[in-house]
C-alpha cells in the first residue's frame, strides 16, 4: 500500500472517531418511565379477588397487583421465586389466599401488608382455591384431590376421590354443603362440612368445567367447552342447558349486583337474564381471552382482566369506569 492509501485510511479513522465522539446517547427516559408502571404489557391477569375496596390481581409474571381504591389505581408487588398465580379467593376476615402454579399457596392479610408463601404438597397442580364462611382454606386439582386447612395452612386434611381426573372448581355454599366439579362431567358434593365427598348426578357426557357458581345448596351454574353453560336447581342431580348468546367459552362466573355474571374468550362479558346469558357491552372491547373477573361492590363495578396487562373496570350499565386501569 502506498502513502496515498495510508493517508486515506488515516482520514477514515479520524472521521470515524469524530462521528463516534459526536453521537448523542439514546434517550431512555420513556423506557424507564414505562418500566416503573405497576401494570406491564407483559402481564397476563389470571385471577382477581376483592374485599371492600381492596382488590388483588394475580399474574403469570411473578407479581401481584394490588389496589386499595377498588381498581382505580394499582401497586405492583413482586413474589419471590418463579411464580404464576392462577386463582385467588378472599376470606370473611379479608385475608386473601392464592394458588401458584409452582406448588405454593400465597396469603396476605386484609391490609395487603405483605405476601407469605406456604408450600403446597398436594395436589400436584392446584386448579381451584376457596375460603369458606368459617375461614377454612380449600384447594383442589389434579389427581382428584381435595385438601382443606383449618389452621391457615399449617396442616391439611386430604380427600382422595380415587379417580384419574382433575377437579377444576370447588365452593362451599354454607357451613355444611359444598360442590366440586371436574373432568368427564364429574360432580361431587359434601353435606357434612367437607368431611366426606360423594358423587351426585353428572354433567353432560365429557363435560369439562371451566367455572362454576353455586348460590345455594340447590342452585348453581357450570360453564364448559365451546360456550356450554348448564344450570341445576336440585343440587346437581339434574342439569339443564342454558343459552349463551356470546357463544364464547366462559372462564369465570361470579355474582355482581345480585346477578350472575361471567367473563371469557373473545373479550366476552355476559350476565344472566331469565334463562339466557346475554352480552354486557362495554367500549373498546378487545377480542382477547378474559381469564379473570370480579365484582367490586364498593363502587358498583366489575373488574375484568386478561393478557397484555388488561385490567378494566366496567360499570353495571356496561360503560368503562373513568380512571380505571386499561
UniProtKB/TrEMBL annotation:
<feature type="domain" description="Photosynthesis system II assembly factor Ycf48/Hcf136-like">
    <location>
        <begin position="156"/>
        <end position="241"/>
    </location>
</feature>
<keyword id="KW-0604">Photosystem II</keyword>
<keyword id="KW-0378">Hydrolase</keyword>
<dbReference type="InterPro" id="IPR015943">
    <property type="entry name" value="WD40/YVTN_repeat-like_dom_sf"/>
</dbReference>
<keyword id="KW-0602">Photosynthesis</keyword>
<dbReference type="InterPro" id="IPR028203">
    <property type="entry name" value="PSII_CF48-like_dom"/>
</dbReference>
<keyword id="KW-0732">Signal</keyword>
<dbReference type="Pfam" id="PF14870">
    <property type="entry name" value="PSII_BNR"/>
</dbReference>
<dbReference type="GO" id="GO:0016787">
    <property type="term" value="F:hydrolase activity"/>
</dbReference>
<dbReference type="GO" id="GO:0015979">
    <property type="term" value="P:photosynthesis"/>
</dbReference>
<dbReference type="GO" id="GO:0009523">
    <property type="term" value="C:photosystem II"/>
</dbReference>
<protein>
    <submittedName>
        <fullName>Glycosyl hydrolase, BNR repeat-containing protein</fullName>
    </submittedName>
</protein>
<feature type="signal peptide">
    <location>
        <begin position="1"/>
        <end position="25"/>
    </location>
</feature>
Amino acid at each position: 500500500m502506498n502513502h496515498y492509501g495510508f493517508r486515506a485510511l488515516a482520514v477514515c479513522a479520524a472521521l470515524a472517531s469524530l462521528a463516534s465522539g459526536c453521537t448523542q446517547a439514546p434517550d431512555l427516559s420513556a423506557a424507564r418511565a414505562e418500566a416503573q408502571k405497576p401494570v406491564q404489557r407483559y402481564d397476563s391477569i389470571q385471577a382477581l379477588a376483592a374485599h371492600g375496596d381492596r382488590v388483588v390481581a394475580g399474574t403469570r409474571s411473578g407479581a401481584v397487583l394490588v389496589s386499595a381504591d377498588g381498581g382505580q389505581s394499582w401497586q405492583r408487588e413482586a413474589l419471590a421465586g418463579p411464580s404464576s398465580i392462577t386463582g385467588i379467593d378472599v376470606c370473611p376476615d379479608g385475608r386473601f389466599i392464592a394458588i401458584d402454579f409452582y406448588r405454593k399457596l400465597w396469603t396476605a392479610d386484609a391490609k395487603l401488608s405483605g405476601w407469605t408463601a406456604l408450600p403446597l404438597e398436594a395436589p400436584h397442580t392446584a386448579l381451584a382455591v376457596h375460603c369458606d364462611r368459617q375461614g377454612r382454606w380449600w384447594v383442589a386439582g389434579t389427581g382428584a384431590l381435595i385438601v382443606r386447612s383449618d389452621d391457615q395452612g399449617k396442616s391439611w386434611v386430604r380427600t382422595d376421590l380415587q379417580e384419574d381426573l382433575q377437579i377444576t372448581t370447588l365452593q362451599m355454599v354454607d357451613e355444611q354443603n359444598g360442590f366440586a366439579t371436574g373432568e368427564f362431567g364429574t360432580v361431587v358434593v359434601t353435606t357434612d362440612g367437607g368431611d366426606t365427598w360423594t358423587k351426585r348426578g353428572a354433567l353432560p357426557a365429557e363435560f369439562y368445567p371451566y367455572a362454576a357458581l353455586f348460590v345455594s345448596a340447590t342452585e348453581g351454574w357450570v360453564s364448559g367447552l365451546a360456550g356450554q353453560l348448564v344450570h341445576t336447581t336440585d343440587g346437581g342431580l339434574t342439569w339443564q342447558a342454558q343459552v349463551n348468546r356470546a357463544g364464547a367459552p366462559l372462564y369465570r362466573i361470579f355474582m355482581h349486583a345480585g346477578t350472575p355474571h361471567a367473563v371469557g374468550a373473545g373479550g366476552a362479558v355476559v350476565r344472566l337474564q331469565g334463562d339466557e346469558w346475554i352480552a354486557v357491552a362495554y367500549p373498546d372491547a378487545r377480542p382477547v381471552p378474559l381469564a379473570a373477573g370480579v365484582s367490586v361492590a364498593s363502587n358498583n363495578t366489575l373488574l375484568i382482566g386478561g393478557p397484555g396487562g388488561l385490567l378494566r373496570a366496567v360499570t353495571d350499565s356496561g360503560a368503562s369506569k373513568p380512571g380505571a386501569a386499561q
